[in-house]
Amino acid sequence: MSTNLAGLPPRYLRTPEAARFVGLSIRTLEKHRIYGTGPRYSKLGGRVVYAVDDLQSWVQSAAKASTSDPGKVVVLPARRHTPAELEQARHPRR
User: Fold this and answer.
1) 79: domain range?
2) Does 4 map to a domain?
3) Which stretch of 2-11, 30-39, 59-68 has the lowest confidence by average pLDDT?
4) Closest Cα partner for 55 from 22, 77, 79, 29?
5) What is the total count of domains within the chain?
6) Buried-state track 27-51, b at ≥16 Cβ within 10 A, e below 16
7) What is the rounded CA–CA span in Å between residue 68 and residue 12?
8) Hey, which residues does 12 pair with through a beta bridge?
9) Do 14 and 8 contact (CB within 8 A), yes or no?
């Protein structure tokens, strides 16, 4: 994790705040975490937290220029996926 310009540690958000930040429901973000398709997270004192930088990176990884643009990374829907689907999303064919 990087530090911001003031030299302070990155800001961490709990699941409800993180879900609001990325525009998802809390349950959808939880499903992404369970299925391994969501942003990086940490557990501090038994609580799940997300660094703002990781949330922004995850959203940026799904950015597209147009509807036909395959993008760099595919963010899969929050559901259980087969290993083949996960591998395909991580390494899309061009």
Assistant:
1) 12-59+73-90
2) no
3) 2-11
4) 22
5) 1
6) eebbbbbeeebbbebeeeeeebbbb
7) 34
8) 51
9) no
Q: Which two tokens stand for residue 62?
A: 């799904």
7 pLDDT exceeds 90?
no
Single-letter residue type at 77: P
Determine, yes or no, domain membership for 41. yes
**Do the domain assignments include residue 67?**
no
Is 3 among the domain residues?
no
Return phi, psi of residue 13, to 5°. Answer: -120, 140
Q: How far is CA 23 from CA 3, 5, 29, 46, 54, in A?
A: 24, 26, 10, 24, 15
Instruction: Kindly state the tokens that stand for 85.
Output: 């689907």
pTM beyond 0.85, yes or no: no
